[in-house]
């Protein structure tokens, strides 16, 4: 069954390198070398990346879109100082300026616009 007039756009908060994630959460406990591989397995099993892959498998590529920039480091939830926010804004601006991301955003906008036109004719 083909899904029509549907766009599922997921905007991620950024993908952190596994090495940085492990260092962030285990270095203080001195367990980094022991838990790195275990942490990577747990992270991958609970990651939103798993959801992204599943949705990508079951939905057509013209229905499901995922925007997920790569982050150079882990960013804590409460890290809202000006320097961190400026860094995240710069990363987002560089991400959307990439040709493949720009093309994806244009496809989404075109599909939403076309859908809007077809609904207005009803």
From TrEMBL:
**Record keywords: Transmembrane included?**
no
Q: What GO cellular component entries does it have?
A: membrane
Question: Biological process GO annotation list?
Answer: fatty acid metabolic process; lipid catabolic process
State the source organism's domain of life: Eukaryota
Alphabetic keyword roster: Hydrolase, Lipid degradation, Lipid metabolism
List the Gene Ontology MF annotations in alphabetical order: phospholipase activity
User: Which spans are transmembrane here?
Assistant: none
What is the protein's given name?
Answer: Uncharacterized protein
Q: Which organism is it from?
A: Perkinsus olseni
């Amino acid at each position: 069954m083909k899904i029509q007039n549907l766009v599922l756009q997921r905007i991620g908060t950024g993908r952190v390198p596994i090495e940085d994630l492990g260092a962030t959460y285990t270095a203080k406990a001195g367990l980094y070398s022991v838990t790195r591989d275990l942490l990577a397995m747990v992270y991958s099993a609970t990651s939103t990346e798993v959801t992204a892959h599943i949705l990508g498998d079951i939905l057509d590529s013209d229905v499901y879109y995922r925007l997920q920039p790569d982050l150079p480091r882990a960013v804590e939830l409460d890290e809202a100082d000006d320097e961190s926010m400026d860094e995240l804004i710069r990363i987002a601006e560089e991400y959307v300026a990439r040709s493949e991301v720009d093309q994806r955003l244009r496809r989404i906008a075109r599909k939403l616009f076309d859908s809007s036109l077809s609904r207005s004719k009803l």
